[in-house]
């Protein structure tokens, strides 16, 4: 009987340590997007179809398009690129109205941008509606496609697409 109690006590203690390790583990408490780092720049990407067409997308130096932005994070140019894409490609939606109501494409990932991204995620993009811009949101979004005239350098908006990058 004493041996059985000892064995049950050891098993119970092991189970408690295991459960505590799972809930207190840094792996479990660190958000998935933290592995990418905040967007600190933009890049011009092409979809590989048209030679002089490009998209301006938030990015991270040394990490490409894998980056995130949430309240009060992201460089001014990265946030502005996201805000301009929402205004241009989702202009008639409540998401664009939230950007307009909070100062337009001002480069600040404030509460208006959080709410705009959250609305898009929930109503258009089919990704987790947390208000955080990351790889899943980027991949689901439409982005403005621009064309640069090679003869004079003039830039013209073409349309919004969901490019394969």
Please provide a written account of the structure:
The protein has 165 residues and is of the alpha+beta class. Helices cover 42% and strands 15% of the residues. It contains six helices and four strands, in the order ααββααααββ. Strands 1-2-3-4 form a four-stranded antiparallel beta sheet. Helix 3 packs across helix 4 (94-101) and helix 4 packs antiparallel against helix 5. The longest helix is centred in the first third of the chain and has 23 residues, at 2-24. The radius of gyration is 22 Å and the shape is globular. Residues 4-29 have low confidence and may be disordered.
In short:
By secondary structure, the chain is α+β, with helices and mostly antiparallel strands. 42% of the residues lie in helices and 15% in strands.
Spatial strand sequence of the major β-sheet: 1-2-3-4
Strand content: 15-25%
Question: How helical, in percent, are the residues?
Answer: 40-55%
Shape: globular
The major sheet is characterized as:
4 strands, antiparallel
- N→C terminal distance: 65 Å
Q: Roughly how many Å is the radius of gyration?
A: 22 Å
Number of strands: 4
Look at the structure and give the mean pLDDT.
85
Spans of 5+ residues with little confidence (pLDDT < 50)? 4-29
Helical stretch count? 6
Structural class: alpha+beta
Order of helices and strands: HHEEHHHHEE
């Amino acid at each position: 009987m004493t041996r059985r109690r000892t064995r049950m006590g050891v098993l119970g203690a092991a189970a408690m340590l295991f459960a505590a390790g799972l809930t207190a583990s840094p792996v479990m408490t660190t958000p998935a997007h933290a592995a990418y780092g905040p967007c600190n720049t933009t890049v011009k990407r092409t979809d590989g179809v048209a030679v002089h067409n490009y998209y301006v997308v938030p990015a991270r130096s040394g990490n490409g398009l894998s980056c995130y932005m949430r309240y009060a994070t992201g460089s001014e140019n990265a946030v502005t690129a996201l805000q301009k894409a929402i205004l241009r490609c989702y202009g008639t939606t409540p998401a664009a109205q939230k950007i307009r109501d909070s100062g337009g494409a001002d480069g600040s990932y404030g509460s208006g941008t959080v709410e705009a991204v959250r609305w898009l995620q929930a109503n258009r993009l089919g990704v987790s509606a947390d208000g955080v811009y990351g790889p899943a949101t980027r991949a689901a979004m439409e982005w403005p496609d621009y064309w640069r005239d090679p003869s004079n350098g003039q830039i013209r908006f073409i349309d919004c697409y969901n490019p394969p990058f």
